[in-house]
Write a structure and sequence with these properties.
homodimer, mainly alpha, 5 helices, DNA-binding
DNA sequence: CGACAGTACATGCACACGCATCTAATGTCG
DNA sequence: CGACATTAGATGCGTGTGCATGTACTGTCG
């Protein structure tokens, strides 16, 4: 009976170990996949259009949802902290790709709108973006 | 015939658009999944063990492949640049979790070995790591 | 109305990252 | 052997990030 219990116990441990290894492997694959795509995007978008992958995501968001967009909405869309988003918008504004406008209804917030230059930049970068995705995900 | 060609053309465009949208969606899901897991790992590992997610990956690599490990091997395992790996090893060494040893065969390279303290830290952090993976991936 | 908690965004700060470059050691040819 | 390309790893530098905090505004409750 003691042996029987040991056996059961060993089996349970083995099963949970296997499950655990599966999780770890899944995580490593996720990490590898993400790194490959992100690095490639960062690289190609930078060299061809002078913007980073996060900048592109923000532009895409602004170009797609074609109404005024709160800064907080952007924070939700791209996976960055609130402060990082704030600086990202500041960079884009400095390059003339977006504009910040006061929100009269709630004067704490701001609206971020894409400019014509920004839309143009987005459309150009979009091709590169899709191209990289096809290469790295397809 | 002209209409026919237009039709074919429109169809092809539509098909490629659909495929493209699929890729974009896949990328966004990948990004969201990665961000969620990485952020959670970073947070919990930091607060409970005082190490980052990348530090953990390096320790795991060193603890698992239990022979001497070149710095370049680490660069391949964790998804960081060579310089980032170099600094990562420097941080781990400063905390007494790994040691750098000269490689006599090729005196340009170094061997990185995990210390007892490092192995202990790894085993403790491993539980937290698996726990977070279970929560965020499972 | 007035004080006080809560919210939206900006900013100071420390730090990890990638790129370019440096140093030291190793091949490789003539 | 000696010059030169190559490789492993370290480091200066600029930049992007998260955390904590600051600032301005809004909502709520006595």
């Amino acid at each position: 009976m003691c042996l029987h219990l040991m056996c059961v116990h060993a089996k349970l441990v083995a099963v949970s170990d296997v499950a655990e290894q599966g999780l770890v492997q899944e995580w490593h694959e996720l990490l590898a996949r993400y790194s490959a795509v992100f690095t490639a995007l960062e690289c190609r978008l930078q060299e061809r259009h002078g913007i980073g992958a996060n900048e592109f995501e923000a532009l895409e968001r602004l170009a797609t949802c074609d109404f005024k967009c709160r800064s907080a909405d952007l924070t939700g869309a791209i996976h960055l902290s609130q402060s990082a988003t704030s600086r990202l918008v500041a960079r884009l504004e400095k390059e003339g790709l977006v504009e910040r406008a006061l929100c009269e209804l709630d004067r704490r917030g701001i609206f971020v709108t894409i400019t014509d230059a920004g839309r143009e930049k987005y459309l150009a970068a979009k091709r590169t973006h899709r191209e990289v995705l096809t290469e790295t995900l397809g």
